[in-house]
Amino acid sequence: MSADKKTISILEERRAQVLEVGEGTTGTLACERHSVAGAVSQRACVFCGSRVVLYPIADALHIVHGPVGCAVYTWDIRGSLSSGPELHRNSFSTDLREMDVIYGGEKKLRTCLLELINHYHPKAAFVYATCIVGIIGDDIDGVCRKVAAETGIPVLPVHSEGFKGTKKDGYRAACDALSRIIGTGDTSDVSPHSINILGEFNLAGEAWIIREYYERMGIQVVSTMTGDGRIDEISRAHGAKLNVVQCSGSMTSLAKRLKEDYGIPFIRVSYFGIEDMAKALYDVADFFPDAPEIMDRARTLVTEEVSALLPALEPMRRDLAGKKAAIYVGGAFKAFSLIKALRLLDMKVVLAGSQTGGPEDYEQLREMCDPGTVLVDDANPVELSKFIVEKGVDLFIGGVKERPMAYKLGVAFCDHNHERKIALAGFVGMLNFAREVHLSVTSPVWRFAPRFAAAESGDRP
Ligand code: SF4
Hints:
Elements lengths: L17 E3 L25 H9 L5 E6 L2 H6 L18 E2 L4 H6 L2 H15 L3 E6 L1 H6 L3 H12 L3 E4 L8 H15 L12 E7 L5 H11 L3 E7 L4 H5 L6 E4 L2 H15 L3 E3 L5 H13 L5 H29 L3 E6 L2 H13 L3 E7 L4 H10 L5 E4 L3 H11 L3 E4 L4 H6 L3 E4 L10 H16 L8 H7 L5
Parallel strand pairs: 2-3, 2-4, 4-5, 6-7, 6-8, 8-9, 10-11, 10-13, 11-12, 13-14
Antiparallel strand pairs: 1-12
Helix pairs in contact: 1-7, 4-6, 7-10, 11-12, 12-17, 13-14
Iron/sulfur cluster binds next to helix 2.
């Protein structure tokens, strides 16, 4: 790929999804569109969207009804740590082949389900429909219903045929499946000061950090959806008094449904960075005015954590001051917190984009970002590379698909997505994040990158 900005341009059909923030910029950034064919979007498919949301439920069977490739592609895609069972770490597939496509795969699905349920005794089973299942028209609802009746556990179809929309449609299909479990459990011992944590996937232990904060405040966490998830906890989620939604792209539809069906209100939070983490605790405490001691405990917790954290950040902040960062994440809400956290480290954000942001998200991003910052929806590698080179980025924050791009361009990288192994949520997460960023940006390896050679010769791109 050429790094010469003069040779890279935006596809005509993509122009409305790219915008440079400027003084008095008006107009909206186009978003929530299907990816442009040939643009090689960074987005995953509908099925992958469902899989990443449901995958952390550790005591359930996850079976991918389709060719083996769909299952392999998403196998162990997230850290999704479990404090108990690890059934989710297996990737089961019906391995549909040519004859199944011709004669149908329902029989094979039933056989696989019965065999796996008898062998592993899961609490529930999720059956993911892939592209080919949508094409051949297998009745997975019918198979799931019959196997559920035979085995006595919930067997839930997930309508996630890869071609039928964007990754966001996969989130909705996952939320549909979750809503069929919620409401089936006993809520008699649920506290009047209780919450569900939605949109936290415990990639590297974050759900444990957040849960511990809320428990220190005297809040009961009924369920976490879906990090370190358990079917029994999810079945009782309708007993909680408040839903606290982090990954808004994936879980807002479920929160809205729980509001309609059970009258449970929801708030949007982020657990990333000092400011947003503290707000997430205070907002929950605010919701329970009948228990002022919850707010008192929240204040004590925040004071203790922040006073330990700030001095530890200071030396890294000095080294990072003025460095430029590019952010490309799944949901736009995460980008807001990243911008604030990078500002705390005295860094400047020059590119911010997401796979699934909505119009309100991008409007907020535009208000937050400095003039000259590029905003981009549903980007592709060519666009991201172009802006990284043009803006002279020092740090790229993204996921597995963005990492090789950064390294090829000789840019420091921080994984803020599914595959990371270090917890980045909470106050301790902010310290981990700063360390990651600092280590990568100040690494001596970048002096060998071609862009520095170009800079030294006075030709920095
Ligand atoms: S696009 Fe279709 S075939 Fe490809 S991984 Fe997704 S579900 Fe499977």
